[in-house]
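seq as requested:
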Amino acid sequence: MIPVNSVLQVGFFPDLMQAEIQHRLSPVSLLDPNAAVPAGDFNAILVRSNTTIPESLVRQMPSLRLVATCGVGYDNLPLSYLKEHGIRATNTPGVLNDAVCELAIGMLFGLIRQIPQSQAFLKSGAWSKGLLPLTTTLAGKKVGILGMGRIGQDLAKRLEPFKVEILYSGPSKKNVPYRYLPNLSELAQESDVLFLVCPASPATNKIINTQILEALGPESYLINIARGSVVDEAALLYALQHKRIAGAALDVFDNEPNPNPEFFNLDNLLMTPHIGSSTAETRVAMTKLAVDNLEAFFNQQPLLTEVPN
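struct tokens:
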């Protein structure tokens, strides 16, 4: 049982998620995370992973003991401050894997088979005047994955039937049947398609830079379903403009929801507005897990999906 007015809900939640929240608890809402905290003795925060919780907000809440975020990423939280003050945090891994992997596969084929361009070609009437240029098949290619965590492993399993060789890189070798390359430059050099599925952290900040893009090369593709911060966007823009790589697909950007408008002029870039988990089923499952963590906390039970310190 979650006590009334013990949870501060920060930021906007879509109607479907809000209905699930209201069904199970009675939070106090704060739409602007930079505003003053309403009067109250709040023990927990509920937030989506696209809303940044500033340290200044947490400092106003002396009774805070838990931050529950709806999303697998937790780079929106002031983790150092939370750890220093014994405030725990939870996220919602696992329940969004299917939706994220489905989008990743869709973006892959949209990119290499130029599906958006094909529809535009047909609608424009150009088909009656000639054929669309040939595209690229996936079978027989090498697919690299940076980040072989839960989502990376689920993505790899979905790629297996497409007759590809799967390679991966990350901090350590995993118990998976794919070739491990600890060096990211080597992974990029060997990959025809490179997926980014790594978490955002100081270690991965702008990890995809000019050197890695040059290693990827003019015949290969980059797909980012991780976080915008893992890519040096200036380097990527240059690589796409000058055809240093074949193309890219991005679901995430540095400055969301206002990405660099120079990306909009590229014909070798496929973009979506951070919709990896944007299905009704997934968003409900994420909300349920976040509230489950809140209930476990208030009932003094083990947290289901606690963020590691």
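The radius of gyration is 21 Å.
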